[in-house]
Amino acid sequence: MRNGRADLESMDQHTGYIVREGVPFIVGLGILTVALFWMGFKAAAVVAFAAMLFVVFFFRNPERTIPGEKGILVSPADGRILKVEEVQLDGLLEGRFRKVSIFMNVFNVHVNRAPYAGRVEKIEYHGGKFLSANLDK
After folding, report:
1. What is the arithmetic mean of pLDDT over 92-109?
2. What is the CA radius of gyration of the chain?
3. Alpha-carbon distance 44 to 84, whole Å?
């Protein structure tokens, strides 16, 4: 905290055009593209190259300008707000909280940022069904 507000410097640090989690997929598709082209499968190489371009687009990490004004709410993700509601939690966190549900389609930037400085102390995985991401389930 600095002057009663969160230190947003970590959000201002831009680490490159592509997030590192996407690099193995991009490199793999690049190698596949070259191999297919080299073996003479030009149509398949074009498809692999198009897939590689989509993966580059999916894992892009554009710079963001964080407003410096006090009291500004900064979204952690691109996308469309589906719902804002009050929820009661009785697990790791207990109490009433405001929940903001954001749906990201495949064309949105899939980098989630932390708009408030902090530290992750525990991660809990709750298995579930494979459902459409735009459903509130």
Report:
1. 86
2. 20
3. 45
Reported as half-sphere exposure (CB side, CA atoms, 13 A), residue 37 has a value of 11
Instruction: Report the length, in residues, of the chain.
Output: 137
Report whether 87 contacts 101 (CB < 8 A): no
Give me the residues paired with residue 85 across strands: 99
**37-83 residue pLDDT tens:** 999 999 999 999 999 999 999 999 988 877 878 877 778 888 888 88
Q: Which amino acid, residue 30?
A: G
The answer to whether the beta carbons of residues 10 and 117 sit under 8 Å apart is: yes
- Does 8 have pLDDT greater than 70? no
Q: Indicate the pairing of strand 94-103 with strand 80-90.
A: antiparallel
The total of other beta-carbon atoms located within 10 Å of residue 33's CB is 20
At a CB cut-off of 8 Å and minimum separation 6, what does 44 contact? 36
Does pTM surpass 0.70?
A: no
- The residue with tokens 């600095």 is 2
Residue 125: φ, ψ to 5°: -100, 130
